[in-house]
Amino acid sequence: MAKKTVKAKAQKYQPPKWRLENGVGFDGNAKNENGSPKNHYVVMMCSIHGGVQPFGPFLDEDSAHKWIRENSDAAMYDRFGNGDEPGVSFIVQWLDVPRQYVSR
Q1: Residues 37, 31: Cα–Cα separation, whole Å
Q2: Which of 28, 52, 51, 48 minimizes the C-alpha distance to 40?
Q3: pTM flag (> 0.85)
Q4: Cβ atoms of 35 and 79 closer than 8 Å
Q5: pLDDT class for 6, splitting at 50, 70, 90?
Q6: Structural domain boundaries of the chain?
Q7: Mind listing the pLDDT tens digit for each residue in 19-41?
Q8: How many whole angstroms separate alpha carbon 64 and alpha carbon 66?
Q9: What's the rounded Cα separation, in Å, for the pair 63 and 11?
């Protein structure tokens, strides 16, 4: 009796799915309690030998600080090949978003 061979179905390529980290993003309609536009924040990686590299924007200051605690070593490793590079610091700075006051 002849053996039946079963061909494996070719898998269709599925590109990786990406999502933003929690707290990362921009909401141009976000307002403070007083109705003014809400501030967004960026993390600045400052290095004496690599300049300044921004990360963000972040929806709030706490999310920016959390990113530093959880991801700053990986960011240094990506940039310098070392997760504890001397002369590198991270600061959180509010993002100055150009906007206009529009009267009603």
Answers
A1: 5
A2: 28
A3: no
A4: no
A5: low
A6: 40-95
A7: 888 899 998 888 888 888 889 99
A8: 5
A9: 39
